[in-house]
Design brief:
By secondary structure, the protein is an alpha+beta fold. It has 7 helices and 11 strands. Helix content is 42%, strand content 25%. Helix 5 crosses helix 7 (200-217). The radius of gyration is 23 Å and the shape is elongated. The strands form 3 sheets. Strands 1, 2, 6, 7 and 11 form a 5-stranded antiparallel beta sheet that branches.
Length: 220
């Protein structure tokens, strides 16, 4: 169900795990390398609950110290997208499952080397969604409902408006936006959609997302 993408492991020392010989008489250094990466089941276990439920994908990059035992310590988040979505904390928690070959000097393992691990979270079963796309859909549906008399027999348009608005509001609440900020964001999204209507491809994507949600609930 879940796809996990690892960018190249970067270390504060040279990134290659091969021996790094120095000048004659200098020690031979081998940098940390993976022994155990998290698999899809591990990512599913640590995927933040609300982003997963909303179909929100994300990524985070952390920096950790590799101990002499090959475990991680002193991990910190370097970057997270979207910010505040919990992906950084998720990777910090997931780092307890990481296992490395520790750095060695002349064949002896030592602790203290730092590694940088970027991870992307993605869902296969749910449509690719991000906050900006959902904002666009919510704004477009709101302008649609305002631009024509509401037909109570038009189940699709009514459901579409409610679904897109609800999903957008749920994400805004989860991001700790206040009620007045949420209403302002909805109005701003509608104003943007009026000023610059989304492309046909984006509208088709909005309709497809709503159709799938309606079908899943048996509303149609």
């Amino acid at each position: 169900m879940f796809w996990l993408f690892f960018a190249a492991l970067a270390a504060s020392q040279p990134t290659s795990a091969a021996a790094v010989p120095g000048p004659p008489g200098k020690p031979v250094v081998v940098n940390p390398d993976w022994v155990q990466k998290p698999d899809g089941a591990t990512v599913e276990r640590y995927y933040p609950a609300y982003p997963w439920g909303a179909g929100v994908e994300g990524r985070a990059t952390i920096e950790c110290v590799v101990t002499v035992e090959g475990t991680t310590a002193d991990c910190k988040v370097i970057s997270e997208d979207p910010r505040g979505a919990g992906f950084g904390e998720a990777v910090i928690s997931m780092a307890t499952t990481f296992r490395f070959r520790p750095k060695t000097i002349d064949g002896k393992p030592v602790g203290g080397a730092k590694v940088v691990v970027p991870i992307k979270f993605a869902t296969q079963a749910l449509p690719k969604t991000d906050i900006d796309r959902l904002r666009t859909c919510a704004g477009w549906w709101q302008t649609l409902m305002e631009s024509k008399p509401f037909d109570r027999d038009d189940t699709f348009d009514f459901a579409a408006f409610e679904i897109q608005r609800l999903q957008f509001v749920q994400i805004e609440v989860w991001l700790k936006r206040t009620p007045s900020q949420i209403l302002g964001d909805l109005d701003a999204a509608a104003a943007e959609a009026k000023a610059s209507p989304p492309s046909a491809d984006v509208i088709d994507a909005c309709r497809a997302r709503v159709a799938k949600a309606i079908a899943a609930t048996g509303a149609r």
